[in-house]
Design goal:
- The protein has 233 residues and is α/β, with parallel strands linked by helices.
- The protein has two domains: 6-20 and 68-109 and 155-232, Rossmann fold, CATH 3.40.50; 22-65 and 111-148, SIR2/SIRT2 'Small Domain', CATH 3.30.1600.
- It contains ten helices and nine strands.
- The chain has helices at residues 14-17, 30-33, 36-39, 42-47, 49-62, 70-81, 96-99, 158-167, 186-192, 219-232; strands spanning 6-11, 85-90, 105-107, 110-117, 123-125, 144-148, 170-174, 196-201, 213-216.
- The strands form two sheets. It has a six-stranded parallel β-sheet with strand order 3-2-1-7-8-9, sandwiched between helices. A three-stranded antiparallel β-sheet has the order 5-4-6.
- Strand 4 and strand 5 (123-125) form a beta hairpin.
- The longest helix has 14 residues, at 49-62.
- It binds ligand BJW.
- Ligand BJW is lined by residues 12-14, 17-18, 23-26, 29, 40, 91, 93, 109, 148-155, 158, 175-177, 179-182, 201-203, 205, 218-219.
- Ligand BJW binds next to helix 1.
């Protein structure tokens, strides 16, 4: 194996599935229980803020009942023991990478435990319900929303992500269906920029054919095996 110096890892809902967090598009997933237009768009929020705030309050509260799994812990171990550069770009709004021990994590679709104030644009840590319209800790306006990225909004830190993709010699995608852009395009970007590309997913994703290699299975098994390969090889 040629020496790997820079790894970019993209994670999606599948990495947290074995922790007990529902994915979006699998059978029984969040989009079967809720209409995406209602709960994950700015228009849905404008139409029915109570529905949206309640949806995110429920998911934020559920975080207290789940734990990181073997895949989160394996990536944290990789981050500690790998001698090169590594960045975990997650589409997930949960905090399981951090609770699994990872530090170099970028949440491109925001975080459940963060609030955004529509009056003063404050973004900051938040771990309480929003349905009862608590005041913003900075400006006191009662106009907080979940600090997450909905359809039609710009994902966070795209400059930093593309910088990392330009430097990457290995791009690994874990537990994502490849249905949502711009994340779904990272494999093509990374490949065109010269990186080797690997997919670890329960099943082949929509963009599987873009990867040099695709392995199928649960993240809790595939990720620790792959981390052993990188650290041992
Ligand atoms: C396992 C497993 C196990 C299960 N082990 N694996 C037409 C063409 C192209 C683009 C567009 C278009 N029309 C509109 C767009 C843009 C739009 C978009 O992509 N739409 C698509 C529907 C086509 N995108 C946007 O609007 C984005 N913004 C944007 O594009 O801005 C403009 C821009 C321009 C130029 C550059 C940059 C930007 C914003 C997208 C925001 C997405 N937001 C959400 C909600 C976040 C908050 C929340 O959590 O509620 O993000 S939607 C939802 O989907 C969430 C996820 O992060 C995201 C991806 O889902 P993910 O993680 O892939 O989950 P699933 O469920 O789809 O897949 C799980 C996978 O795991 C499956 O494959 C399983 O098999 C697997 N799995 N168990 C391993 N145990």
């Amino acid at each position: 194996m040629t020496e790997i110096r820079n790894i970019v890892i993209l994670t999606g809902a599948g990495i947290s599935a074995e922790s007990g967090i529902d994915t979006f598009r699998d059978a029984g997933g969040l989009w079967e229980q809720h209409r995406v237009e209602d709960v994950a768009t700015p228009e849905g929020f404008a139409r029915d803020p109570d529905l949206v705030l309640g949806f995110y309050d429920m998911r934020r509260a559920a975080l207290a009942k789940v734990q990181p799994n073997a895949a989160h812990r394996a990536l944290a171990r990789l981050e500690t023991e790998f001698s090169g550069d590594l960045l975990i770009v997650t589409q997930n709004v949960d905090d399981l990478h951090e609770r699994g021990g990872a530090k170099r994590v970028l949440h491109m679709h925001g975080e459940l435990k963060s609030a955004l104030c529509l009056s003063c644009e404050m973004r900051g840590p938040w771990d309480a319900p929003m349905l009862d319209r608590p005041p913003c800790p900075v400006c006191q306006a009662r106009s907080l929303r979940p600090d997450v990225v909905w359809f039609g909004e710009m994902p966070y830190q795209m400059d930093r992500i593309y910088r990392a993709l330009r430097e990457a010699d290995l791009f690994v995608s874990i537990g994502t269906s490849g249905a949502v852009y711009p994340a779904a395009g990272f494999v093509r970007d990374a490949r065109e920029l010269g990186a080797r590309t690997l997919e670890l997913n329960l099943e082949r994703s929509e963009g599987s054919h873009w990867f040099h290699e695709s392995r199928q299975g649960p993240a809790g098994e595939l990720v620790p095996e792959w981390v052993d390969e990188v650290l041992g090889g």
